[in-house]
Amino acid sequence: SLLTQLNLLRKRRLFTDVVLWAGGRDFHCHRAVLASCSRYFEAMFSGGMKESQDSSVDFHDSLHPEVLELLLDYAYSARVLINEENAESLLEASDMLQFHDIREASAEFLERNLHPMNCP
């Protein structure tokens, strides 16, 4: 499929046109793929923002690298595994980066798994 081929290109760092940084890790990506699943990236890359011309975007420590990796894997595969360990982090990151499908799925996961033992 197209996403599979784009993911292979990403993993080989071919034709990537932006590098995302989080927690000291770098992630080479394609702007078009990011913009297609995130309004945050669509606005960043298409508007007059400085990042629309920059070759990298640094999230510093505002985004955990493992969570960003999950979001990017979703962007390139349309799949993500949401579990008890990552649901809350995915919800926060997907809300910040406007990955609406993951935000909804994470919120639904958390709602389904709420019970008196895990609520303060």
Automatic annotation (TrEMBL):
GO terms for biological process: ubiquitin-dependent protein catabolic process. Residues 16-84 form the BTB domain. It comes from the Eukaryota. GO terms for cellular component: Cul3-RING ubiquitin ligase complex; cytoplasm. InterPro entries: BTB/POZ_dom (IPR000210), SKP1/BTB/POZ_sf (IPR011333). The keyword Repeat applies. Pfam families: BTB (PF00651). Keywords: Kelch repeat, Repeat. SMART domains: BTB (SM00225). SUPFAM superfamilies: POZ domain. This is Ectoderm-neural cortex protein 1-like protein. It comes from Callorhinchus milii.
